[in-house]
Write a structure and sequence with these properties.
Layout lengths: L9 H20 L3 H14 L1 H19 L14 H10 L11 H8 L4 E2 L7 E2 L7 E2 L12 H14 L7 H5 L2 H14 L3 E5 L2 H12 L5 E5 L4 H10 L2 E5 L4 H18 L6 E6 L11 H10 L3 E5 L14 H5 L8 E5 L9 E5 L1 H10 L1 H4 L6 H16 L2 H17 L8 E4 L9 E6 L1 H6 L10 H17 L2 E2 L1 E2 L14 E5 L6 H21 L3
Parallel strand pairs: 3-13, 5-6, 5-7, 7-8, 8-9
Antiparallel strand pairs: 1-2, 4-10, 9-10, 11-12, 12-15, 14-15
Helix pairs in contact: 2-3, 6-16, 8-16, 9-10, 17-20, 19-20
Amino acid sequence: MDSNTVPLTEEQAEFINSTVSSLSEIIAAVPGSHLVISYLKNAYQNDPFRIALELFLVFFAIKYIMSAKYKPHDNAVKLTEKEIDELVEEWQPEPLVPPLSKYDKFNMEKTPVIMGAQSVKPKIVGHAKPLMNLATTNYLNLLASEQIREKAISTLRQYGVGSCGPPGFYGTIDVHMDLERDIAQFLGTEQAIIYAQNFSAVSSVIPAFSKRGDILVVDDSVSFSIQKGVQISRSIVKWYKHNDMGDLERVLEEIRLEDIAHKRRLTRRFIVSEGLSANVGDIAPLPKLVELKKKFKYRLILDESQSIGVLGSRGAGLTDYFGVPAADVDIIVGSLANALCASGGFCAGSEEIVDHQRLSGLAYCFSASMPAMLAVAASDAIKMIQDQPVHLLELAERSRSFRSVLHHKSLEPYIEIQPSDLKNPAPFFHIRIKPSFLQSRLLDHETEVTREEQEYLLQDVVDECAYQGVLVTRAKYVIEQERACPRPSIKISVTIGLTKKENEKAASIVKNALIKVFSRWRK
């Protein structure tokens, strides 16, 4: 025993023993105390660190409960009534929308307003007589069909305006399924699926199949809706020159060599092309596209929004035009709002391709279904195209005839027409200003003619055509968001709703307006 240790007296020892005994009796009297004591003994013997951690948490919880409560406005600056009044007087509210620029006001003022129903000769605000309409996609004049109109009215009375519900819940009815079946049979695919909006069809289909890490090889002149779909997918994107199959093969070969060099894992890969280019008007070489997609083992997404109902002997689009089996194209997307005189879009392909979209196509799952009357109108339009294929030949001939007038030598210094090939059966084309003409009319302080100045020049042509009885329009683009915005143009859409003489007269008016305006510009 240490010499410095003071031994307990007998009275002290008895006091400690009696105190511990009393505490033990009190603890034992508490219900469940033996379980707590047993737990603490086992925890201490088997894992001392555990009991230390638990004690720390208990003390932390007690401290947190006992600490002062935080109030959100404790640090708020106290302002006097005078200071508040001064701040209120100084505050200037920002406008809900930014002020319109000169160019924005110009576009709004020059937008034609149609009075009454759309037709091949609509009434336009500001014009006494109806104008011959070359600004519509009503190529086959199906909007004038009494049969389609009566069927649509009958369907409206039976089903109402719309279900206001998504197709996968309670939005799908029999006429929607009939239209999907009609589209699949028309194109020669296993199945089809319809979307309520044509713009969101392809922009939903692409991200439904191509995800982050997958590869998209895309034509660099695709329409804005395809660009949005590519952007939403967040995939790896490679661009190839418009309808240049040599450049496409080069890009595909580069990707193959990169895969070998970096030992990249296999991912989903797609080639994305537009059947009939909305921005250029030329036709994609589908046989070569199919050949390359098979050679490099890619899937092909083909947008037929502009070509469905106008190309091919049956009007079934590019596969019909080139005689390529529809099964060779993995995914065919298109619009019902152009030649088919309805609204919405579609996607056609194998059963697996279509079924996947019913749960993964965002525009299908989260948008209200197409109104029943429009579905019936589209089905009837398909049947009328199949029953009257002669209209397709007539449309192609009208387009060639119109363009041949504008290929006159007198217009050669001023404009270029896309597509330039007179044999192209596309029902629309673009009139663009020749770069050499713009260069010849530069002012002393200019290095180039701005886009806005080009738009003003083309609008003068549009106004002159309207004055002479023809409605045409400038092509519209979302300039700030386009990947590579096309040059300004006047887009001419031909329709068989006008007679041959009216078509020739309209072409002559456009030609004369171009000569009149261009010859005087900056003189």
